User: What shape does this take?
Amino acid sequence: MNRHQLGEFEEIVMLTVGILYKEAYGVAIIDEIEARQNRKVSIGALQTVLRRLEDKGYLTSEFGEATNVRGGKRKRYFSLTSLGSRILRETQEQRVEMFKAIPRMAFPKP
Amino acid sequence: MNSIPHIQPPKFFLRFFRWFCDPAIVEDIEGDLTEMFAREIDDGNITKAKIQFSVRILGLFRPGIVKKIGCPSLFNHSSPMFKNYFITSVRSLVRSAGFSTINIVGLAVGLATFSLIAFYVYSELSFDRYHVKADRIFRIVENLRTENEELFQSTSSPPMGPRFLKDFPEVENYVRLQQWSLLAQRNDISSYERESYIADSTVFDIFSFNLVKGDKKTALREPFSIVLTESMAKKYFGNEEPVGQTLKMDYDNYKVTGVMEDVPENSHFRFSNLISFSTWSRNNKDNEDRAWFWNGFHTYVLVREGASVDNVRAKMKDFLKRNVEKGGMYYEDLPLQPLSSIYMAAPRSWENGTRGSMNNIYILSIIAVFILLIACFNYINLATARASRRLKEVGLRKTLGALRRMLIAQFLGESLIITLVASILAVGLVWISLPSFRGLVESQLSFSVLPNVWYVAGIMIGLVLLIGLLAGAYPAYIISQFQPVQIFRSSTKGIFGHNGMRKVLVSMQFIISIMLVAGTLLVYDQLDVVRNQDLGFTKKGVIVVPTNGDTAIVNYLDAVKNELKRIPGVVHASGSTSTPGQSAGNNYTEIEMTDGKMSPTNINFIYADHDFLSTYEIKLLAGRDFQRDVKSDDTTAYLINETAIKDFGWTPEQALGKKVRGRQGGKIIGVMKDFNYRSLHTKVEPLMVAMTTYVGRMSIRLEGTDLPTTIANVKTKWNELIPYLPFDYSFVDVEFDRQYKADQQLGKVAGVFTGLSMFIGCLGLLGLTAFVVERRTKEIGIRKVLGASIPSVVLLITREFIWLIVIALAIATPLTWYFITRWEQNFTLQAVINPLRFVMAGTVVFLIAWLTISVLSIRAANANPTKSLRME
Assistant: This one.
């Protein structure tokens, strides 16, 4: 389990890649995170995390078509691998388990 | 989105990004960047878009995006191997710990001695450079021509400075200094202040001496004003406030007007106090203005900023013509010595303060470089010799695709590691040996002399790199040259072609060693000659006590001498203005020539009493000594020395009765045999002795074996007769020998460093022998099985080295001969170079080398052959 620990930002990136499904490339991921989470995302931080997740085998990527807008550079679309989605799910379950384990008394009264 | 296609993202940053980014991901990220840039352009703010773009690229410069190290590129190709190189280097160093130790210790000792000598040389060369205006300060010195000779003096006459200021617009200021030796007295402390100087009040404007108390404008204005250095102030006033108090010096009371910091060690002249110039000039107005031929002062001039000294020099002939009337002797030239060059310049007559020796600096620098070279050669020899140990590694690396430059980098790195370790050790060695080194060179060597820390650190790092590269280059070149095919073939013969190089290096080490040993022996020979030379007087057993013209002694000279002579062990006593080994005054005098005309000349003078010649055992060639019963001797009798009459072309007999007109009229009554009244570095100059009642120094000749008791008795008597005058005696022979301090130091220092260089050389030799023995273990075993005797086996190993020593001796001899002959030119009397010294040096080096080699080879020869042959 420990080997598959995800960082907070890693988790969000993976979730976003999942959300965008076939449209998950750099700029789109940034826009999506910024929109949903209301936080600034630097391309440097994002790209490093993308490569790291890809190295770990949680994400995979392929080039799309070249477009004029991007100065003729192709987009790289990311998608979850089966390992990636399993890790994501495990992380999710872990969180839920832990959340459930909190005794009711611990929550301050509203 | 194509609406504004002509706006491009900042080119520089884009190019930078393309350069650092991992090529595998460069395309899509660049696409992202361009897309975001285009979007922001559409928003309208072009500048903001560009800034954002650049900021993003800088944000991308992080691990994970930057090219993976190890990608085939010119810049980074070998980086991942560095770790591996480092590990293999350290492993091989540890595996052959003995050889590594030899290398490291050798290099450490070499670096340490080099640093120490460099420190010393630097501090010697730093003299007087601390003055802020140093590059604009010059000393006026004089080249004088008399009828017979040219005199080079460091001093100049009193009107010289003021006239320079008046005549040369380039000159901004001047200061005149004259050394006085005064007896300072306060309460119960009385002691001679031999380094007192009178100085113009401008001294603080020209030199960077820091006045701690007092006003530098007025401190030296009034007569009998005195500025003390801090240490002198402490000596006489303790914790009292000195400024405003009076201090008695000789017969006058001086008012303390200021306190200054002590004069730094690296000053060509140092003093304990400064006395106002007006103290002297108020009674000598006439001399100050007109005594053009009285060269009693050291004059320093300050040249205006931006003005050229050459301009002043160009007008010098004119200046002399205008100002100085001829008087038989005339000014040939007035050179201007740059302040910072004075310490190392060839000494002129009447120098103030101490002088260094450029010769010694050269010699020491050469020794330092030699020692470092020997240490480097050790490394080169051992590294190439042991290359065979690394062959498999090199072969493997090459087979796996290592480029030659990668191997070179590896082995250079290895030598850098060794040098680095050695340099750390060297720092420790320097730290430990600095106190004794200070004693050896008799110099304070304070760190304050050095420039700032970073500068020194930079130089040290540079040195380490240089040595590392110097030592590592050749082995790296050799090792990286091996062909894998050759390496893996069973016979490794043929790849040791660098044997020749090793021989060259070893013989160079021997050459250096022999040169140092022979050189040191010859330096000592020369010093012996100097010490034992017939000076024309007997320096042994004479003590000198300064009296500074004390009136009691002057008035009762004969009585004091008689009292002293009654003490057992005291043979003679004599008063004089100056004594041999010190210096002699110099006076304008006219002497009658053979044709009856009076010829003007500038001649050195010692004024003495009746007993001077007998006290110093100076011989007469003709005529007579001063006699008590000839009353006129007191004022009209002159003795002259051999050199002087040779200059005039007289025989001793011809000289007698010649008329002399100087301070008083008179005639020559005797001719003295030449005696070295100054130093062996300078020739004996013409000298006259006349009588005086002024006694500057009292010479006492002692006899017998128990000198300390005799001296104690003299001291008791002295204190009884003249209680207020300190009995501050010194031995003439000691004082005379002190003139060769620099040379004696050279001898000592050369001796020590010769020893060190031998030590380093031997370390290398030891390593090399160990290696040879190791490689030939089997051969030795087989030879022994076949009946070889132990001596023949030892000879087998040592033979090679013996040849090298013979060759080295042949090369070192003429080189040393040449250098020593040149060095001996510094002395008036040169030792004959004894060829036996070279034989001795050769033998010494040979013996030490042979011992070093034998230790290992005898062990190898004694080893049981079964052991060496069994292992397979």
